[in-house]
Amino acid sequence: MDTSLKLLVIDDEELMLSLFEAVMAEHGHAVATARSGQEGVEIARTGQFDVVITDIRMPDMSGIEVLGAIRAHSDEVGVVLITGYASLETAIDALRLGADAYLLKPFEDFERDVLKVVERIAQKYGYRRENKRLTADLNEANEHLKRANLEYRRTLAFLNTQHQMASMLCNARDVESIGAIADQAFILGFETQAYALLLAAPEGRFELVRSSGLAFAQDGTVSVEAGSGPVGTALAQRRAAQLDLRQPGAEGREPWMPEGMACLVVPCVAAGEVVGALLVFDPDPGQLFATERVSLYTVLAAQIAAPLVLTRPGGAGAAPRASQSGVRAAS
Q1: Which tens digits make up the pLDDT trace of 100-111?
Q2: Alpha helix stretches (DSSP H) within the chain
Q3: 6-133 belongs to which homologous superfamily?
């Protein structure tokens, strides 16, 4: 383990600077020096030091002022004040501003009076920095565990809901029935904040037939053209696509889409044909959809695709398109 320290010594006396450089080097410590308080403050702000050692009486800037400037910038470096003119008032000011030691010159035993003090202070701040790092690592690990646990519970809920939906969709023959099952799946089973179910229409268009949590224009109609815009492009390519709509004015966000959410577009494919689409919106600001969730929604879209075919013109059990959640289907 590397025990060498990086020190900054501030003093207007060349002899004192030379003393610190020589003795500290003998013990394996690196020393940077400054010949004025202002120079020392500038060096302290640009370097990573374990301990700053500063004289109190200097022409341009006192050691007390240096201490205040360093503490205003960082509380993760030790500061030692040295002086040949001790006073109770100065000592109190030094402690009040956060000095770690107040040493008197001349030093009778440099190793005992200075070196050991500096090493002890450096060790204290080293422990403090390590504790801070470990705490940050622990918090990060806890957040990761929370996210993993949430994703695990979501996955279990998805699988359970998909199993139930597979049975229910076998008997669905119209948009109304499919929409009711979708509501139960998304709102209750998947705890989804917002979703949209689109049905393929003539001339390469997809029209909204069911939704929750969306914002609509006054006429309440929503229609998407295959190959046009991010949603239409995903449908034309017949593969799931993610849209990051979390930022205001995000590219691809339509007026009817909720703000501040990620969007997953999943085509509903039956017999090689896109018969509809699921649009799922997630408010989690930390990430887009995980790979596992994309896979689960893809399976869900495939389950919905089969009964959607039956709702199209000429399909067995075809029925007028449903209007739900205050939405009027486009005609």
Answers
A1: 999 988 888 898
A2: 14-26, 37-46, 63-73, 88-96, 110, 116-169, 175-183, 229-237, 291-310
A3: Response regulator (3.40.50.2300)
